[in-house]
Amino acid sequence: MDLIKDFSDDEIKKMVHIYNKYNQQKEYRRNYYNKRYNEDEEYKNKIKLSNKKYLESKKKVKNII
Hints:
The protein is mainly α. Helices cover 91% and strands 0% of the residues. The protein is elongated, with a radius of gyration of 21 Å.
């Protein structure tokens, strides 16, 4: 908690505001992509295919090691 003492109240308010803004954007993106995933079949299939390719490549790397 000694770190907080190094900042003024205005600086702390700015940091909290930036942090809250970041979380809002993160929440918005999560909601947007979840909604898109649930409504758009083509997008859903694309994501499933990329996940499948990722898992296959992961298995290949594991087998090599």
